[in-house]
């Protein structure tokens, strides 16, 4: 309560007396106070009982709400909220290490790891304040060069997790991020290691590539050996403040690099084959060709080429649907490894050495017996009685087994395959059984994904003698892969052992700076004795005679600095004067180190193309001089 009387005293600093008008005003104020009732100047008044209880209830109600909400948050949902708070404060991030690399047999590195950065945005961690959020979105638009509407659309489309807002940041962008990143909550820079593949030697089908999304192997060795190659990620714990800025980083688990592969592949040979094949395809106008080289002593794959191929480095960055469509629509682009997966390839006369082995093993023919081989043989149709004739590519006359292989005599193989006059022939079922022994009815088991197995003909009621004749010289409705041919010829070259082709020699790991072998792949024998060595040796002699005899199908290879045994093949395609050309060989003849199979699709008229490929590859690889040789007539 304020006193009713105001005794005003004004004292100046100089302590002089008050002026008369000041005394007069003081008295007027006192008289006015006497006239005002005490209730008019009271600042405090009694509170009515109803208002008091209403106020008290209101206060108690508010306290009740606060207490119940606190109980709900701390007791009922306390554990969940504590976890949420901790998850907002602490974030666990993975630490990627290096994926294992790949070497050829001489330790030339074929695959490298390169550092790449991408900009990640976690929508849930962006500022909730609209003005702050809009400011950050505008900064992201400027930084990435994307329109603001595109940035907003991409972020709003992702509710959980993170999105890659920008891929493959350049050095300048990384430096700029380092100066601004702390002020951008919900945005982070992710360091990745991307693959860089050797771009020579047509290695794409062999090496494959990995997905940028989940770093899984998508093709080739990257896919088949992913469990070895992939790194073992570590973990780091980030502590953040309320604005999302990182306060501290703790390494929880150190990352470990993936294991590396040492291949059986000889990169020098791979590169030579690729270059020679590519040039020859351009010369003859072919779009597809492939080659396989195997060591017949153990099944080690020394080279594997398939055209068309692709640039596996294009998968090192994220691609839009339009970019993918542009890439795969290119005529010289294919993800299909025809050397191991191709079907639709009849072999032509490349089948003849296998038929010869079967005939010798089954006692159908003595290797030295002479059979007269005219330009054609004719037989009566089993049902109509009409005469059917089966031609040779030229007249050969009297022929034994070695000459039949060397000169590719069709009539001889008609006789020992389907039978003619006093020669009973193998018959279709026996031929299929022997092709099976050489592995032509199943995958070889090579350590690459998506291997095909080819298709052997089905012997049914509609099968006729003419079908057997055609099968005996590698024509008709059947197909095998170039790898299956190479695997079978490796058994011919080594005397009868059928090996499983093997691309990888060793899996190794870096431990304390040293390379330690994790796994060593020993040769796998599928069949230790496909046929007797004596009979296989006779067939080898016929293949060698194909090179040494002036009438041999590959006589011009006799000038090479290495001794070679060969067999060529011309498979019909159904188009007039268009063929699939084959050549299979092994060298050196005395102690074979390499079996090579070359196949060029859709070649017109002659066998010169595939023979010239074999000549140039062998000449370059074994160190001879490249000789230009003349064309000869097609077989």
- Mean pLDDT rating: 84
User: How many E strands?
Assistant: 21
Percentage of β-strand residues: 15-25%
Number of helices: 20
Helix content: 25-40%
Class per helix and strand makeup: alpha+beta
Return the CATH architecture of the domain at 348-527. 3-Layer(aba) Sandwich
Write down the CATH topology of the domain at 348-527.
Beta-lactamase
What gross morphology would you assign? elongated
**Biggest sheet layout:** 7 strands, mixed
- Distance linking N and C termini: 130 Å
Low-pLDDT ranges: 1-25, 625-635
The whole-angstrom Rg is 43 Å
What is the name of the CATH class of the domain at 348-527? Alpha Beta
CATH homologous superfamily heading of the domain at 348-527: DD-peptidase/beta-lactamase superfamily
